[in-house]
Amino acid sequence: MFYEKVTESAAYIKERIRETPTVGVVLGSGLGSLTDMMEDKVVIPYREIPHFPQSHVAGHAGNLVIGRIGQRVVAAMQGRFHYYEGFTMKEVTYPIYVMKMIGVETLIVTNACGGINRSFVPGDLMVLTDFINMLGQNSLIGDNDERFGVRFPDMSEAYSHELIEKAEQLAEELNISYKEGVYALFSGPCYETAAEIRAFERLGADAIGMSTVPETIAANYLGIRVLGIACITNMATGIAKEKHSHEEVVRIANESSAKLCVWVEKIIRNL
User: Looking at domain 2-269, which of 1.10.3720.10, 3.40.50.1580, 3.30.460.10, 3.30.420.40 is its CATH number?
Assistant: First the structure.
């Protein structure tokens, strides 16, 4: 049934586009402006795609935008789905399955997250080198459909080493500073406690957020290579001196989005 739903979603999208996208991008809170750089765009609201979930989080527009950046055709998600909204893990990752079925081979995931590494400051961009799934849930739990992937997929290179190397080389060419780090997934929707952050820091996490990992797992399972870039919008609880607010997260993400979008555009043009 899941496979059939994904097929129907993909068929609906294919009817509305002229070219096959090979690059997918998931745009996090406040980071949706990459689509302004796309040419020959087709904008498909999530609500129009059969079986597609719909997000109601501030900073997430809720559109699938397909267009061209250089020689690449890109499918960009303006807004993602979060476990804390009450979606199942299969719903959270549903768009990645659809992307695979419409032709996507490379996925760039972005997010707005909190910094744990004390050398970070709000506004920093961080290349994800690995993740820690603190959720106690996995998007692949349940019956496995071999048409999508193997039962026990490898996660030893969750974020493509080749893509990381390319992204960092291009950042240096653009004179964009960046950090590297491990991203930890926290369920939300409340922000973490200071004690939780101390625990995550000891486990080796450099940043904490409420997204990205489920999509990364699904993409690896589907044979899609992944690059992850996070925007550090705030320092985590116990490190930050002020209390958290989603409005501040979106504000910092908006301020950093121009730099991130220039970087991601350059990466896509050089794939």
Answer: 3.40.50.1580
